[in-house]
Amino acid sequence: MLEQDIKKVLISEKEIQEKTVELGQILATEYAGKNPLLLGILKGSVPFMAELIKRIDIPVQLEFMTVSSYNGTMESSGEVKLLLDVDTPLKGREVVIIEDIIDTGRTLKYLKELLEHRGANVKIVTLLDKPEGRVVEIDADYTGFTIPNEFVVGFGLDYDGYYRNLPYVGVLKEEVYSS
Ligand SMILES: O=P(O)(O)OC[C@H]1O[C@H](OP(=O)(O)OP(=O)(O)O)[C@H](O)[C@@H]1O
Ligand code: HPA
Ligand SMILES: [Mg+2]
């Protein structure tokens, strides 16, 4: 069972659910009449995006991009690689980037600059913000939870590609990393 590898639950399934309802309502109000493009960043944003979009009760379109910099490890490589791009024109579009976490900030800084360069109006919604991890300056417009400087897994977040399917966000036991 996945659960036996978890040292502590940081954010419960219920807390995540309530937060997505709250964020969905805020986004629906903010983007009413604007037909925003909700841009999920693969792979980590999948559970959060699936939950959030059900709570945004206005017309939206969905797109996905894949970027990677951790390669399954606990350390950012420092280099953000674009692995899958959108094929939709973004000039003048209201784009809402949906992310699972801002940690060093490198991923979102790279993406925001790229999309703004293409002429999009970009805002960021993230489930988690780890401000103590930051090495570049970038902030989300909408944040679910601010978390301490610990490596977390679950609800999209992985270690070595695993644990994304946990329904909550938690911290792994040390022996999982050392084995
Ligand atoms: O603020 P940063 O330090 O850049 O970290 C945040 C990014 O790192 C993770 O993605 P990762 O590159 O591991 O790809 P994944 O979504 O497939 O796990 C996470 O999903 C964010 O996209
Ligand atoms: O704390 C984290 N956990 C999993 N993936 C991550 N990518 C950036 N920070 C994290
Ligand atoms: Mg990852």
Automatic annotation (TrEMBL):
Superkingdom field: Bacteria
GO biological process: GMP salvage; guanine salvage; hypoxanthine metabolic process; IMP salvage; purine ribonucleoside salvage
Gene from which the chain derives: hpt
Cellular-component GO terms for this entry: cytosol
EC number(s) recorded for this UniProt protein: 2.4.2.8
Keyword Nucleotide-binding belongs to the record: yes
Organism: Lactococcus termiticola
Family statement drawn from the similarity comment of this UniProt entry: Belongs to the purine/pyrimidine phosphoribosyltransferase family.
Ranges of residues in domain Phosphoribosyltransferase: 24-159
Name of the molecule in the record: Hypoxanthine phosphoribosyltransferase
Enzyme class: transferase
Record Pfam families: Pribosyltran
Catalysis performed (reactions): IMP + diphosphate = hypoxanthine + 5-phospho-alpha-D-ribose 1-diphosphate; GMP + diphosphate = guanine + 5-phospho-alpha-D-ribose 1-diphosphate
Alphabetical UniProt keywords: Cytoplasm, Glycosyltransferase, Magnesium, Metal-binding, Nucleotide-binding, Purine salvage, Transferase
Keyword Transferase: yes
Pathway participation: Purine metabolism; GMP biosynthesis via salvage pathway; GMP from guanine: step 1/1; Purine metabolism; IMP biosynthesis via salvage pathway; IMP from hypoxanthine: step 1/1
